[in-house]
Amino acid sequence: MVDVPTAPGTSRRGFYLTFIYGLWGLIAAALAAPALLYLLLPPKIRRGSEWIEAADVTQLQPRVPVEVVFRKNRVDGWKITSEKETAWVVKLSDQQTVAFGPQCTHLGCAYHWDEAKSEFLCPCHNSVFAVNGAVISGPAPRPLDRYETKIQDGKLLLGQLRQSTGSKA
Ligand code: FES
């Protein structure tokens, strides 16, 4: 019998080693791919601005604030949570309906509508706001913050809460 010389890597042993290393490589790639995707891809990008239905405009009385409660999604990295939020909605005129953020612009206390005085009152340090959100008195440095709003099919939709500019009157 004559020994046939074989080129390196073409023996049965070489074939098995190549096969085993290849298999290990595939397994390593399968395990590493999800981890790399997790680390390298940015978190879910927040979808544009989210509009949330908050009130039926036809049910609002002129210049009578209504506190509405709605749920809003909050995106924190990969985590999305649904939170309950509130707004004070006021139909100032047939053309203008506004929605105020629920916190006083002084130190963030919850204020309420005083029916008798027709004013928003903050009990913490006695800031007083007019029905249009302007500061009447107290330490509040600026008018009430407002949500972006739009009306669609008679429904009031709320967008992002925007910090008010301006100062007290
Ligand atoms: S938090 Fe409202 S007056 Fe201070």
Briefly characterize the structure.
The protein is an alpha+beta fold.
Provide an overview of this structure.
- It is a single chain.
- The protein has 169 residues and is an alpha+beta fold.
- It folds into two domains: 1-41; 52-162, Rieske [2Fe-2S] iron-sulphur domain (Rieske Iron-sulfur Protein, 3-layer Sandwich).
- It has one helix at residues 12-40; strands at residues 52-56, 66-76, 79-91, 97-100, 112-114, 119-122, 127-129, 135-137, 146-152, 155-162.
- It has a four-stranded antiparallel β-sheet with strand order 5-6-7-8, with no helix packed on it. It has a three-stranded antiparallel β-sheet with strand order 1-10-9, with no helix packed on it.
- A hairpin with a 2-residue loop joins β9 and β10.
- The radius of gyration is 31 Å and the shape is elongated.
Question: Which distinct ligands sit in these coordinates?
Answer: FE2/S2 (inorganic) cluster
Tally of alpha and pi helices = 1
* Proportion of beta-strand residues: 35-45%
Q: Numbering strands along the chain, what is their spatial order in the largest sheet?
A: 5-6-7-8
Give the N-terminus to C-terminus distance in angstroms.
109 Å
Q: CATH topology of the largest domain, anyone? A: Rieske Iron-sulfur Protein
What is the CATH architecture term of the largest domain?
3-layer Sandwich
Structural class: alpha+beta
Element pattern in H and E: HEEEEEEEEEE
Mean pLDDT over all positions: 88
- Number of structural units classed as domains: 2
Main β sheet profile: 4 strands, antiparallel
DSSP helix fraction: 10-25%
User: What is the 3D shape?
Assistant: elongated
Low-confidence stretches: none
Beta-strand segment tally: 10
